[in-house]
Design brief:
Layout (H helix, E strand, L loop, with lengths): L1 H7 L22 H13 L1 H10 L8 H11 L4 H10 L5 H7 L4 E6 L6 H7 L3 E6 L6 H4 L1 H14 L3
Parallel strand pairs: 1-2
Helix pairs in contact: 1-6, 2-3, 2-5, 3-4
């Protein structure tokens, strides 16, 4: 996770530019919900992934892109995905945010709302660019626009 990397080696991180994440900086997912997803991965990984991928895109996404992402995600095993999910039970972003001292500049799609103002209350040096009609993979769905935004962000940060 990008935030955890910045916490572990802050002297090597000038800024964070997470992609389609940090809709809210404080995540309070109940452990039972995480365990249920992990259990679904173990019970029917392919079926669970197929459902999940539908939730990552707008309904009119390019079918070839959709198929490519789904195929890539199915390359993992249910046990690997379940173990990753279960690691979130004990992780809290609030602890890392107390240590990280660099700008956070997200590039997010609009499929899920980014709580920009609430996030700034938690971490004052937070900002986000929202790409319209884009889901979880803005770098794949709108690569030219994504690259322009990334270039703008990097130019705006003084290293």
């Amino acid at each position: 996770m990008i935030l955890e990397t910045a916490r572990l080696i802050p002297e090597k991180v000038a800024a964070l530019v997470p992609v389609d994440t940090f809709y809210t900086l404080i995540i309070n997912t109940p452990p039972d919900a995480i365990k249920n997803v992990a259990q679904a991965y173990r019970a029917d990984y392919a079926g669970t992934i197929k459902q999940m991928v539908k939730a990552l895109f707008h309904k009119d996404v390019d079918p070839q892109l959709y198929a490519k992402v789904e195929k890539k995600m199915l390359n993992c095993t249910g046990e690997m995905a379940a173990s990753l999910m279960e690691s979130f039970i004990t992780y809290t972003s609030a602890d890392s945010l107390k240590i990280v001292k660099c700008p956070i500049r997200c590039i997010n799609g609009d499929l899920y709302p980014t709580q920009v103002e609430n996030n700034r209350k938690v971490y004052s040096d937070f900002d986000a660019i929202i790409i319209p009609h884009t889901g979880h993979f803005p770098m794949l769905e709108c690569p030219d626009l994504f690259n322009r935004h990334l270039t703008e962000i990097l130019k705006s940060l003084s290293f």
